Amino acid sequence: MTRKTTRQFVKDRAAFRAECAEAQAACWICGADHIDYDAPHDDYQNDDRFELDHFYPVSTHPELQHDPANFRPSAAGCNNDRGNGPPRPGLGIPSQAWT
Q1: What are the backbone dihedrals phi and psi of residue 30, each rounded to the nearest 5 degrees, phi first?
Q2: Secondary structure E strands in the chain
Q3: What is the pLDDT, as a whole number, of residue 93?
Q4: What pLDDT is recorded for position 5?
Q5: I want to staple 33 with a disulfide (CB 3.0 to 4.6 A). Which of 26, 56, 87, 97 is the partner?
Q6: What are the backbone dihedrals phi and psi of residue 18, each rounded to the nearest 5 degrees, phi first?
Q7: Rounded Cα distance, 83 and 78, in Å
Q8: How far apart are CA 36 and CA 51, in angstroms?
Q9: Are the CB atoms for 41 and 49 separated by under 8 Å?
């Protein structure tokens, strides 16, 4: 399996984070826009910090680790909950605003 901490991956992650922060991209797993782009990557107490997630997990598809088409913005908590399994589908767009 390819190491995630290669110099190339660190550069790829930083560039992707900058793109996502500029666009204020929402978490691809839950759809919410709660990602904390200002939090350091090693702020392990902050479940809202940005994490680069892979659509196809590196553990099952190591050849796609550096493929930008496989990158997704996620909140750390959502990414940790997902693990290396498929994302759980959300409810989708509600038919009306329920209060």
Answers
A1: -105, -15
A2: 50-54, 71-75
A3: 61
A4: 73
A5: 26
A6: -60, -40
A7: 9
A8: 10
A9: yes
Exposed e or buried b for every residue in 26-48, given b needs 16+ CB within 10 A?
Answer: bbbbbeeeebeeeeeeeeeeebb
Helix, strand, or coil (residue 96): coil
Tell me if 64 sits within 8 A of 56, measured CB to CB: yes
Q: What is the pTM of this model?
A: 0.80
CA–CA distance, 84 with 95 (Å, rounded to integer): 31
Residue 83: count of CB within 10 angstroms of its CB: 9
> In residues, how long is the chain?
99
Distance CA 91, CA 82 (A): 16
- Please say whether the beta carbons of 76 and 51 come within 8 A: yes
What does the alpha-carbon distance between residue 75 and residue 60 come to, in Å, rounded to a whole number?
A: 21
